[in-house]
Design brief:
The protein is an alpha+beta fold. The chain has 3 helices and 7 strands; from the N terminus they run ααβββββββα. The strands form 2 sheets. Strands 1, 2, 3, 4 and 5 form a 5-stranded antiparallel sheet that branches. The longest helix has 18 residues. The radius of gyration is 20 Å and the shape is globular.
Length: about 140
């Protein structure tokens, strides 16, 4: 039985090496652009910006991204739209490329997420259709 377990471990290890991890595969397909965002440029669509529902809410927002491309720098408005389940813990409607950390809030008596730092993003991997289109057009 011990020999069989060792064989299974070797087979699983070989398969994982052959198939590669998702991070390795994604980095091989990265575009030639990098975007950063100013978190204070976020705006909500006046018509459907924040809609509360019995199960959570719907958000529609836009952020201004500054992207570095092979042709130079460009400012892009990235529109986002998402439906959420549950209550807003601070991660609803954030701009792509920002990192948040969980902190305890004495006032609410719960953990909430607060902006920690701006890390940037590859526009190809964005949740914004505008940034994905930009990447396809200018970042090959």
């Amino acid at each position: 039985m011990r020999k069989l377990n060792g064989t299974v471990t070797i087979i699983v290890t070989m398969l994982s090496l052959l198939l590669g991890s998702p991070n390795v595969q994604a980095s091989a397909q990265a575009s030639k652009c990098h975007c950063t965002v100013d978190p204070y440029t976020k705006t909500y669509d006046a018509k459907e910006g924040v809609v509360k529902t019995w199960y959570g809410g719907k958000r529609s927002w836009a952020c201004t991204y500054t992207c570095t491309t092979p042709q130079g720098e460009a400012k892009i408005i990235g529109r986002h739209k998402k439906t959420y389940v549950g209550s807003d813990n601070g991660l609803w409607g954030i701009c792509d490329g920002l990192e948040y950390k969980e902190e305890y809030n004495m006032y609410s008596g719960d953990f909430v997420y607060m902006l920690d730092r701006m890390v940037g993003l590859d526009p190809k991997d964005s949740t914004s259709p505008d940034l994905v289109k930009f990447s396809n057009d200018f970042c090959r």
